[in-house]
Amino acid sequence: MIEILSWICLLLGGLLGIIGGIGLHRFPDFYTRLHAAGTTDTLCAALFLLGLGFQAGLTLASFKLFLIFAFIFLTSPTASHSLANAAMIGGLKPLLSDPEVLNPEEFDKS
Amino acid sequence: MRIIIAASLIFLFWFVLSGHTELLMILLGIASTLLTAFLSRRMNVIDHESYPFHLGLRLLRYYVFLGKEILIANIDVVKRIIKPGSTISPQVFELPATQKTDLSKVIYANSITLTPGTVTLALEGEKVIVHALSKEGAMDLQTGRMAGKVPDPEEFH
Hints:
- Chain A has one domain.
- In chain A, about 80% of the residues lie in helices and about 0% in strands.
- Chain A is built from four helices and no strands.
- The relative contact order of chain A is 0.12.
- Chain B has six helices and three strands, in the order αααβαββαα.
- Chain B starts with a helix and ends in an 8-residue tail after the last helix.
- The longest helix of chain B has 27 residues.
- Chain B is about 55% helix and about 10% strand.
- Chain B has about 160 residues and is of the alpha+beta class.
- Chain B folds into two domains: about 40 residues; about 90 residues, no CATH class.
- In chain B, about 30% of the residues are buried.
- At the A-B interface, α1, α2 and α3 of A face α1, α3, β1, α4 and β2 of B.
């Protein structure tokens, strides 16, 4: 039973990783691609770690897996944010569906 | 007080990662814990921001809520990726960040980034600039549903 649950998690995680990769190629610009990558570093990673945790059972190894999850949870948004922030400060203009909505001085300020 | 909890956590962390139970190893672990605690104290990095114990249960409850949001947002982004045709409507907009403490503002901005489909571009004073993948995601954030859930105790400035 646990074995099946574990494999469901691992396979779903793998599927999400592939979909994230497809999105990375499909979306048109840097900022939208960042969103596609976001699916891989949240739910995909969580499902992998959960699946591996089921394999390990209640041992020290699964606690270590939980620690990995906690660190990803805290560091991955920081990394995405600094990428997006660097792009904005560098003056990379995002592709928008409504160009007039963008407040242009936000991007010219720095 | 905070340094004692921090040191215990550091030691626990060392113990879990090493798994050693011999006396010599444990003594070495305690020595390195004390050194780390001493250095972090000298560097002034043990404060209410790096060790937000005072948020305690509130933070845990918030993470449960955030986990649910991340799940829903993930499914939404995955749908947008696999549906053929044009499925996205990227937006950039400003949101008010009215949380009283810096820590709560950072938790809010990080939550926006962690949720797929929205990324925080900048956090300046009382506002965050957000890039959203779709109009729906942008509108959901603008309702302030997530902002209202961020733990924001006034007593810790």
